[in-house]
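Quick one before lunch.
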Amino acid sequence: MSGPERSPVKQFTMLAGPQPEDPFEVYARVGSVQPFWTDSPSDVDGYWVVTRYADVRKVLRNPDGAFSSEEAFIPKISMPNPMLPTESDPPDTRKYRSILLSEMTPDKVDPLEPRMREVCAEIIDSFRDRGHCDVVTDFAREYPIRIFVEFFGLPPERREEFRNHAHTFLHSPPQRPTTWTAIRTIVAEELASKRRSPKRDLLSAIANGEIDGELIDMETATNIAATVFLGGLDTLPSNIAWSLRYLTTHPKLRSQLVEDPSLTPHAVEEFLRFFSVANPVRRAVRDVEVGSTLIRGGDRLFLIMGCADRDEAEFEDAGCVRFDRAVNRHIAFGAGGHRCLGSHLARHELVVALNGWHAKIPEYRMPKDATLSFNGGVLAIASLPLEWDVTNA
Ligand code: HEM
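Model of the protoporphyrin IX containing FE complex:
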């Protein structure tokens, strides 16, 4: 293919699957630099890596329509049906999002708070007297999925199966097409039953939604519902685990949250910025400049939020977690036409998780011999052992 020269070229490996090293530290070494091309042998295809806040925001906001979300996956994976609205472009994106938008507003999410607190307390009570747990498996993965299945309208007894599918999809790219089909099969069955007898849940709203004044077709409804399923299941556990891990090594910040829970919403915003776990991808539809780099039409872009949201050009003291940050325009939830639809739910759940944890376990630490393991894709800690003194708890 002809077009502008792909330059500069740098060595880089996209993090996917199990990782031995903290992925945010790996990305911190890349830093916030001008876009560069990479075609490391360990990654399947070459692609652009975009790290600066201004560049990532520009690509996401896409003012001139130079970037597409269709056929943008890295590595290139051919999916049997599109993830919607994720793999769509305007004007279709707005149509698909309209089915979800009114169902995920603060008005719909805020009333869930008492249930969030109840579930959170129940889960922590189940292990608190033990004096130790694995935060990832015992808490961070368990709490959001219990809220999500109720909000979404899935049978709670199939929680484990849902969680495993979402995890495989997000962390094992080669298995995506088969896992996607398995997820679609589950949601298609549920959507069919919710179309016949709607309940007060998101699946019912999707099953009975309208596009251009017509009842949504089941194929589109299934692609939308399966995408929400994926968006809602792995991002939150990752953020909860990163936040609690950070607080084990920053006891002053932890004490501030224990003493004054009204600080927690600020802490959550800062943890969203500092641990931006989701990295969007895009495809250039024509030759286009990003920063000082000319991108060739047809090339794919990997947008590293963990670099953008730690860019000194946008955030003063970007490398420090500061609960008193006056301006925090982080893009952990994306920006522009595909901005995260679950952001209200996510923020609410994160605040309840940290406050719920600190109310019951105010002091905690990582065991000295703890070994952490990590996942790429949605950047996650795979396992985080914590312990505490039961008498003080
Ligand atoms: C800490 C938690 C979360 C983070 C960091 C996060 C991050 C993101 C990001 C960066 C995008 C934009 C992707 C792109 O531009 O291609 C996105 C999209 C999306 N998210 Fe989230 N998300 C979170 C939680 C959730 C939850 C809880 C749900 C659902 C219950 C959800 C549902 C979605 C959906 C449906 C989209 C697709 C929007 C579109 O393409 O128009 N997310 N999310």
